[in-house]
């Protein structure tokens, strides 16, 4: 299982597994054929739904998406496929669903979905997670009484080249931009941008060369495009565009989940749960989007996916218990390769290459 430079391609998968199961999986992917092999895993964490890698490529972090949730640190060795849990810290809230390590490797951000809160943790030199340094709970609600009765923080992503982070809150239709003050160990709110009422922002992606932010909205089933100007203190986010993730005429139930670009930034994808597809968008030179069709993920409920270079889209189909390899064509549209691997309730995919 080798990449184009002869190195193994490793993929971590999180899932809705019980603590008694190996809910974290270590897979290898053949970059040429798209075939999979499971080589190891880690147990001991209830619902390790989302994972994050440390920049040093030696430590892995997972949420435990439960009431009274937690974040957990692991060390791992790719060659032996061995995991060792280092420690865990409470998330001080319910259903932590996303986490991310900052570019320096010194800080970990996590969000609690049900509680609508954001946690900042220091990462110790050993890779262990220190006690919470800062904790912020959002307030408010949206127009959807069934899904937006209160705040529901869904993700925290660093904005490239800055110390700023964008937190998407599905419950309040808000994009919160925080600046990480590393010396003080604090998150400083720079602004809150209101999305369309009932949109339900969920995940974000960033153009690799331009200050453009793409947000996928779970409830409206749209992608919103923003220009980000870090020098502006009043309104650093300026909305440029909105496009639907669904084909014309679709009338079934659907919610959106994840969003990623190819490495080149030429194509962007957003996942549909219900239509069970990825919406494909062509990215213009200015960073705007043009609809470019849809591709089936060949399974049910693509909650998360990953993009490898400009070659593969790897879809985690939660409700059909599989991860599919879809080969990206010259037109940017992924197509079936006939390659998949069975995993129970896969939720998150993180790609890492051996050093």
UniProtKB/TrEMBL annotation:
InterPro entries: Cycloisomerase_2, Lactonase_7-beta_prop, WD40/YVTN_repeat-like_dom_sf. SUPFAM superfamilies: 3-carboxy-cis,cis-mucoante lactonizing enzyme. One of its GO terms (cellular component) is cytosol. It holds the Pfam family Lactonase. GO terms for molecular function: 6-phosphogluconolactonase activity. Signal peptide: none annotated. Gene3D superfamilies: YVTN repeat-like/Quinoprotein amine dehydrogenase (2.130.10.10). Belongs to the cycloisomerase 2 family. This is Lactonase family protein.
